[in-house]
Every structure is written in structure tokens, then in C-alpha cells.
Amino acid sequence: MEKRRTVPVKLDVDSDDAALLENTIDEFLWAADYVTRHAFEGEYVTTSKTTLHDDTYGDVRDKTALHSNHVQAARNKAAEACKSVVEKWKQGKRASMPNFTSPHLVYDHRTATFHDDYVSLATVDGRIEADYVLPDEKRDTPHAEYFFSDEYETTGAELHYSNGNWMLHIHCKTDVESNTSEQATENRTVLGVDLGVNNLAIASTGTFWTGDEFDHWRREYEKRRGDFQECGTRWAHENIQAVGRKEEGRFKITLHRISNELVAEARENECSVIAFEDLTDIRERTGASWGHKWAFNRLYEYVEYKTAEYGIDVEQVDPENTSRRCSHCGFTHPDNRDGEAFECLKCGYENHADYNAAKNIGLRYLRRNQTGSGGGAPVGVRLNSGTLNANGGFESPADDESARAGVHAESPRL
Ligand SMILES: [Zn+2]
Q1: Number of H helices, E strands in the chain
Q2: 343 C-alpha vs ligand 1 centroid, how far in Å?
Q3: Were both Cys, which of 124, 228, 358, 388 would link to 65 (CB 3.0–4.6 Å)?
């Protein structure tokens, strides 16, 4: 199995070099947009990298001073973005032609050379060199663990410019011996996770993370943003952005903590899969704010990133009716749910509505993956004590753990 890590490294870039990098980024984004526009020109959207290469490579080389590998990287970016638009259309969702605005640039081994103290980067006018700005402590940093480790190989990087900082996100990988396949057959269970406004996340084990802290910050932020917005000046605009950055940093710390705890929850319960609902239309479904949507996406990304080394898969499942369906008997009705309370009109099963939804998300993953041989696929949804199988049957654990504090327990009828 391959273990992949991305290590963010700040770069010390002088102003001349910064100007060169900015020009290179501009041309890179222009190239990605150019290829995208071309992909959208015909009757069908072109998503084949080969076709897009044949159609646009010469033009982009003529019109930019980009290194050939930057041209290819821009084309890949465009092809992937077009592909995901087509994917959404297939699912009946709306999506428009992508355009590239966030300042970034993709590097590989032909366009970047990673030295011990500095990196050499190709630009539209030769190469520049930039020193790494590393943390003072030399051990226990991601830099020491991955980037400077002999066990890891550097595969490439993405350069980002934001808030006046040049950051290089360096991709590293190593091969690890896999013992996860054994574990996976022994403990093939899935952790279902429901995301929401009152509880930011709730797991099928019953553990939940409230949205209080997040709500507090979001309200503060929106209040301050509102104050600035009334001014309507450029100064106000810049202040909104400054407030945004500060709040974003705080949100991210909270979301990192929650994601760590979610991953720990999956590991403690020996789950091989964490299932979330599909996040695409979560605002329309749950009435969540833009801030919540942002938080859900970050949380999902963090969990996905942190589980990779444990061989735990992170998946999204179709969210339809997960909040209206009874996780006990399968009866689906909008009146089963009343705010935070779930009570099945058919079998009388009662529990917290978000907890019921988390179980349904886990079950949906199971059912989706049980058509077929089932070899290696999870066989149960992990609850706070015991496991729920795809038919809704409940299996008690051999040793009867009592429900832990801070969790929603199964109701006695099970
Ligand atoms: Zn029921």
C-alpha cells in the first residue's frame, strides 16, 4: 500500500522572484481556462486528456512562456474539472463551465528540484530559487517526518499564493507493508456519520460533536462582516477579508480536532470504512448556511486525508431519505421526524433524529456494497454497542460494553 502525505512548506521569495511566480501563475490559470473553454466548445464537453492535448497544446505553447510540463499540468487540471462537471450532469445536477481563479501552480520533477534548504522552481522566465521557512523545532514536524525522511519520496508539489504568503504543498509518498487487509476481513464494519447544524457530526456509534462552538464563531464573524459591509468601502472590503482569514483559522482548528476524533472513533471501533452523506446539495437538504457547507467540506477532506495511513476508506453515499427512514424497520415517512426527535410511525423506534440518520448512512453504504461477492466489503454498521447488519438485524458484542458518556445509546427495544 502507498502512504501519501502533503507537507506545507512556506517559502521565502524575494520581490523579483515573486513577480516572476505571479506571471507564471497567471499564465498557468490562463492555460487551464483556455483548455476548459475549448473543451466546452463542441456539442459535447471534451474530457479526454489526449484529445485536449492534441487540440490545445500547440496553441498554449505559442501563447504562453510556460514550461511544457506546466502546459500539461494546466491541461490535466482543466480535464479533471470538466470531468467533474459532466459527472454532476449525469447525476441530474447543475454545474457550469469551470474557471480557475485561485492562485496556484502545479510542479513535478521536471519543473521543481527539491534541495535540503531550498527549492528551485521553473517560471515563465527561467528558474528561481526560494529558501524553505521551517519551524524551529527539528523533530516531530511533518517536515522531519515526511519531507526530510529517507523513507519518503517527493513526487511533486503545488504552489499556492494566499494572504501574502508563498506556500509549497509538497507531495510525498512511501510504500508501507500492508497488514490492513487482514484487519479489514476481521473487522469489516462501517462508521456512518451524519452532518448537521445542531450536531456538526454524529456517528453511528452515537458519539456526537455539537455545533455550538462553530455557531458562536460564525455568528460573530457574520456580525462583524455585516458591520463592515455597511461601510461599503475598499477599506471595509479588506477588513472583511481580514476577519474572514482569522475566523477561518479558528474554524479550521476546531474542524481538525473533530476530524481527529472521528478518525480515532473509527479506529477504536475497528471500522474499515467511514461513510458520509453526499455533500453536494447539503445546503438545500438541511438548510445549512454557506459556513456549514464550507465546514462540512473541510471536515470531509481532513478525515479523508487522515485515514489514508490506516487503510480506512472514506466514502459518500446517496443521502436521499436518510433522515426520514427508520433505521430499525426501514419505514420511510416525513412525519417520522419531528425536529431532533425521531419516532417511527410504523414500529415505534425512537431515537435522536441525527443518530437515526447516521445509522441509515452506514446502512446505505453496506447495501450499496453488498450486491456482488461481498469479499472484503464491510458486513455491519458499528453502533455504540454491537453491530447492525444490512438487514437491520442487531448483533450484540461478545463482551457487553456499556454505553459511554456523550453518546446516544440504542433504545431498549433493540
Ligand atoms: Zn420503524
Answers
A1: 10, 18
A2: 8
A3: 124
User: What phi and psi values does residue 13 have, to the nearest 5 degrees?
Assistant: -115, 125
**Which residues sit with Cβ closer than 5 angstroms to ligand 1, an ion?**
326, 328-329, 331, 344, 346-347, 349
C-alpha 255, offset from chain centre: 11
Question: Which grid cell is 147?
Answer: 519531507
Which residue is it, cell 470538466?
82
CB 180 within 8 A of CB 372: no
User: Is the separation of the CB atoms in 105 and 167 below 8 Å?
Assistant: no
Angle in degrees, 0-180, between the axes of helices 212-231 and 234-268, rounded to the nearest 10:
170
- Indicate whether 246 pLDDT > 80: no
Residue 365 near residue 273 (C-beta atoms within 8 A): yes
**Cα of 336 to ligand 1 centre, how many Å?**
9
Q: In this structure, are residues 182 and 374 in contact, taking their beta carbons and an 8 Å threshold?
A: no
CA distance 172 to 142: 11
β 350-352/380-382 pair status: unpaired
> Quick check: 112 and 119 in contact, CB under 8 A?
yes
Q: Picking from 61-70, 224-233, 257-266, 370-379, which range would have the lowest pLDDT averaged per residue?
A: 370-379
Span 58-72, average pLDDT: 96
What is the rounded distance in angstroms from the CA atom of residue 37 to the CA atom of residue 25? 18
